[in-house]
Amino acid sequence: MNRQFHPKKIELLAPAGTFEIFQKIIKSGANAVYFGGKSLNMRMHREDYNFTREEMKEAVAMAHSFNKKAYIAVNSLLSQKDLKEAEAYLQFLNDIQPDALIIQDFAILELINRLHLNLPLHASVMMNAHNLQTIEAFKELGITRIVASREMDLKTIQNLHLQTDMEFEYFIHGDMCIAHGGQCLYSGILFGKSSNRGLCMKPCRWSFQIKKDGFIFPTEYPMAVKDMCMYEHIPEIMESGIVSFKIEGRMRDAEYLMHLIHCYSDAIDRYMEDPIGYDRKKNMQVIYENRKRDVSTAYAFGKPGLANINSRYEGTGKLYSHGKVFSSPVEEREISKERVKEIKKILMGRSPSPKKAILSVKVNSYEQGKVALEEGVDVLYLSGEVFEPDHPFSKKEILHLIRQKKNTKIYLGLPRMMFEDDFSRYRRLFNANALDVDGLLITNLGAIREFRQLGWELIGDYCLNIYNHEAANFYQKQGLSAVTLSVEIPLKDAIDTIQKSSIPMEVIVHGSPVVMYMEHDLYENTLVLDPIGYEDNHGADHSILVLADEKGYEHPVYRDHRGRNHMTLCKDLCYLPFLKELHAIGVHRFRIEGCHYDLNRFQKIIRIYQEALRDLTRCECLFASLTSVQDRFTLGSFQFDEGGDSS
After folding, report:
1. Class of domain 3-184+222-303 (CATH, top level)
2. Count of beta carbons in the 10 Å neighbourhood of residue 301
3. What CA–CA distance (Å, rounded) separates 307 from 385?
């Protein structure tokens, strides 16, 4: 069943969580079906879901017998343990020849190339493709389709479609995340169950009240987004250049999915048959009556604001498919002497490294930058997304810091999300001004493609999600000289990744990395809601919005100068007690993520870490001097030897 629209074929792409569901859906109005195997995909909560290898083989053959396509999701980040399994798995997939694999981790690309396999590749929504430079980089790597970022509006897609022959796939219905694709790390850090490995415990759907400026605001589920529903906007999607209309729902039952497929299939065919007399609302009422949550068009027509937040059935925190609760609020696990001792034992046995340890620091303001230079840090990163009330680094400030830098290397950080106007501004800055910076802190593949010709050193930031050595080596081939380790990687995977990577690995050892990165602006709640009480923040400055969960734990959310929100840990990350052991396994770059600190605290932390790196035998003693009554620290993902197993 082919659907031809203008010069291209379009497809309705349906999910299947089990082979039994697939057998029904493949006979429906869907042109293609996507599913996953029993490992290495983004839906790993249920053992009775996903396909065995025999089922995958039969499903691909059955799809082709109906002249339809079968796409297989191999879209989780791979642990070091997964890499070996992935080789045999990819060779099996090459034998059964699905129409494409949906991938997130560049390790898959590395393995396919090394094994000389013939497997078409689609870039998962978790790759967060959102600019032309990234799309063109994907194309050069052999990727034939992107699943567009959830935050990309249809107008942007239409503009990009005119500039590239890349295929675009777009979610038209189903469960959405509040965070940018691949940029929610909290479940992995808190539970050892990574949202990038199909095991998200949904902390975004906890109940939270908002606190700011001494006021309490009566929010209930302020990060629980509505489900996507684009049923009434089929014409706009079809005219935008999108070729694949994707329904989310690999954990949904057959009856629910068959109903959706029928409605959307009918709508697409009716519009193609009669675009003038087309009725947008024909089945909308029945879709609405059978919804799981309330629905919205999300970012399809611009930022939706608070209208995108759901209240229907939230608070259960349940998987609709079987009613199991995902998670309840828990405290970030504090550093304990026992766990530090276990970590040191696991890390021990390596010979001391002769290579000098260096200290890098990311700063939020010109004033922080001056302090870092006065203290003589080795590397200074100027954040590309500055938290309010500070302003972005001006040309004048950058040049002034460069003049003071002495032996410090200075790198300009880039925003995680870079749209065309961002590239335009940075091009003008770099081309019109002889900035004598040492390099860039890179946040996306498109930025590598765009700026590597400048000849500056390029360092990969932690938002690149380096979870294994194959992905690290991929980025080295792209031109990076060092990469930052994922902050949600558990201890043993971190050790293996560091030791097997050919590229230097930077580790964030102190501070508060962003664990949820959102286009959604939670601060809007404080403008439209009346306070219901008064209470100061317990940790963060009162001007900072905090999400107070049901157990009273406060989660700071910083707003940057573009209005994006950055949720950080409740407690600062701290690896100070075992820096010596990390250095021995090959870590030579140690970073303080310091954007949220006041100047006095910032200076004190820098001095302690510099002293530690000068004499690594004093780390535990210095940790004791760092702690006080008000300072509480967490080991983050290093509290786990291994994370939740994607297999």
Report:
1. alpha beta
2. 12
3. 25
pLDDT tens column, 147-168: 999 999 999 999 999 999 999 9
> Which residues are 228's β-sheet partners?
174, 296
Burial of residue 31 (CB within 10 Å: 0-12, 13-18, 19+) is: buried
Residue 528, amino acid: V
Q: Report the mean per-residue pLDDT for the chain.
A: 93
Domain-wise residue ranges, the chain: 3-184+222-303, 337-520+556-639
pLDDT single digits (tens) 195-230? 999 999 999 999 999 999 999 999 999 999 999 999
Largest CA distance in the chain: 78
Please provide the DSSP assignment of 99-145 as one string. SEEEE--HHHHHHHHHHT----EEE-GGG---SHHHHHHHHHTTEEE
Phi then psi for 26, rounded to 5 degrees?
-65, -20
The b-or-e profile of 542-561 (16+ CB within 10 A means b, else e) is eebbbbbbeeebbbbbbbbe
Cα–Cα distance for residue pair 317/201, rounded to 1 Å: 9
The answer to whether the 3-184+222-303 and 337-520+556-639 domains have the same CATH topology is yes
pLDDT of residue 48: 83
Residues whose CB falls within 8 Å of the CB of residue 619, separated by 6 or more in sequence, listed in order: 576, 577, 578, 579, 580, 612
* Residue in 375, 426, 447 with CA at minimum distance from that of residue 594: 375
Q: Is the pLDDT of residue 647 over 50?
A: no
Which residue is listed with tokens 């209240």? 311
CB 400 within 8 A of CB 631: no
**Structure tokens that stand for 85 in this block:** 């399994």
Q: Are strands 295-296 and 32-36 parallel, antiparallel or unpaired?
A: unpaired
292: left (phi over 0), alpha (psi -120 to 50) or beta: alpha
How far is Cα of residue 366 from the mean position of the Cα atoms in its chain?
Answer: 28
Q: What is the pTM of this model?
A: 0.95
CB atoms within 10 A of CB 7: 5
Residues in the chain, total: 647
Give, to the nearest 10 degrees, the angle between helix 491-500 and helix 80-96. 80
Superfamily of domain 337-520+556-639: Aldolase class I (3.20.20.70)
Under DSSP, is residue 346 helix (H, G, I), strand (E, B) or coil? helix
- Vertex 118: Cα angle to 114 and 119 (nearest 5): 100
Alpha helix stretches (DSSP H) within 240-354 = 254-273, 284-289, 337-347
Q: Give the per-residue pLDDT at 645.
A: 46
| Pick from 442, 437, 595: nearest CA to 429 | 437
